[in-house]
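$ fold --in a.seq
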Amino acid sequence: MKLKDLFTTLATRAGIAETDAKLKAVIDAIPDFDVDDETVANPIKTNLITELEAESRPTIKKKLVAQALNGVDAQLEAKLSKIFTAEEIEALKKDEKPTIKKLTRLLAKYDELEASSKPGDQAELNKTILDLNGTIEKLKTDNEVAVNAVRSEYDQKLYFNSLANKVIARADVTDYAKAKEGKRVITDLQETIEAAGGVLDFKTGNVMQKADPTAQLFIDNKPATVDSMLTKTLTENEYIKKSEPAGSTTITTAGGNDGKPAQIGSGILKTIQQATEQSKAS
């Protein structure tokens, strides 16, 4: 697969119109060479997905839900142990959706207590109702916090994967820096930002002050961005390829003053060539 085609595919999946002038300018600047489908192109296209694709992928959805509900289960069991036997709780754990099942049983127990209560039990019933309502509200809040935390972690990984692929696609970056799927550069980038007293804002791509995340970090009187910090990282770690030294030309003549073959360097040769051309012109 052509590198240009791979980049175009990733860009359009990111929501950039294929006809966008700036995108076309970038694509035109990409070298025209092939990228191996099996080891490079296909893994990138398969493993890098958009947020919309992630939300509809069953494996990711299942993982997010499981992580979010782990804390919920612990709180539910603390309440269930007060009103159910150990055998009943163990049976709930074997259900295909144990957390939902526990909530259902908890609510059913609530209805049972309400239906069987007597006037003399009203105070105890009210306390039970308050406890159950408090538990349910706390579960809702904790569940939302857990989901947001998992989503934030996923967004961060997706952002850094995209940044790593940007580094890998650069022709001026050394192979050493591109090793380990570009993760070496990402680790060094995070250390560079940390050392500068900054923290990366994944939504804007700006680097904010660690002491005050609402204020942007400035370095040398210029606002710090992920692009500027990436350039700083690549430069300071010598990850940019060095220019090849200009080639030299040597000509061996019939002999020098010492009887050995004499050599004329490229600078002298150029001077001789220029003098010859001027002589012919006159």
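$ fold --in b.seq
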Amino acid sequence: MMKNNQSIYLILIILFSLNPFFGVFALVNLLFIIKYKNDKFYNLLIIFLSILLSLINITKVPESDLLNHGLRYLQSGDFNFPAYLIHQRKEPIYYIFDYILYHLSNGSLNAWVISFTFFSYFFIFKSILLFFRKIKASRIQIILGLMIAAFFPLIFSLSAHLIRQFIASSIFIYFAVNKIFYNKNKWWLIIIGVFTHSSSALMFPLVYLSFLGDFKNKKALNISLLIILTSYQFIASILYEILDGKYPMLSYILKRASGDTTYDLGEFPIINIIIILIMMVITVLYNSFYVNSSEKKSVRHFFAISWFLSIFILFNTHQSELSLRMFYYLIFFLPFIIPLMFKKENVINTFFVYVMCIGLSFYFLYKLVYGTWTYAPLLELLSNSIVSFSKGP
């Protein structure tokens, strides 16, 4: 059996090298057919998906944030190391990564895109596998979680757009799963995350608030936090008046927080509100009826982070810039939540999940062609080998 697995492993790697899309398709179908006791083939799928999404991203036409970040990356060749960090002025760990990678790769933009895409997705996928293994999830839940993380268009569109926040979000979700479910306090990830994108400083502390969601024993703390989240704008306006410009930097932050910031983003999209409500309903039902008693506290804490974040967003939809920024953290919980509906691995659920995976894959391909951003032609994406991808356009 071990020798057969090794042969299958090798065949899959060869298939993936010749055609990454087909290699992923073959491996996903194999996991639906055969129940593997260890994670070897799931880890292979994680690597395959991380590489595939990285290769797709290198075909993206640079514009908006990808173009701006790409130009900043190329500036690494114009400065010495200290001068480069001073020139960028913020999030030093991200720009340290840029500077080092630029000089290691001789300024390769493909290496840059592949690196941040691969490592971000690798963190996300590993988090999903660790989470579902801890709650003793079914095989189809693991597969669906990985497929949603890989092919849900909104998540993928962020990977080469809001690059720094995407990296920070992936680090946050990996940190949260390790701390909450495995009691592994990988504190250095907080430093990396915050100094990659400072907005993640709002997220990491929630992982240490173990009382979140425990309204039975810690009602006062939870209600207090809810009051702060739903009235933060009012609190910020009072503090702004009290300080009266005595501390310019703090006053600036409080002024931004106390006023509506919509800019050119328009209204907070209705579809986002629908997604939030669906996620909240699923997690509430799961926590009420299906949680294994040994993991109940951890599951409650993990999903309570998404609940409190959801409430904060829903009460601040008039602040479209802020609510969208926080929504992009919340969306990383989606691959953990949707599969909760398929706890029982029976024929009907397995078939339904398989159809969902196929449908999601086709929708992903559709959005590559008709979405906001421009990638290589679809036929080229579907037929390329790894070597063809690496040659670029």
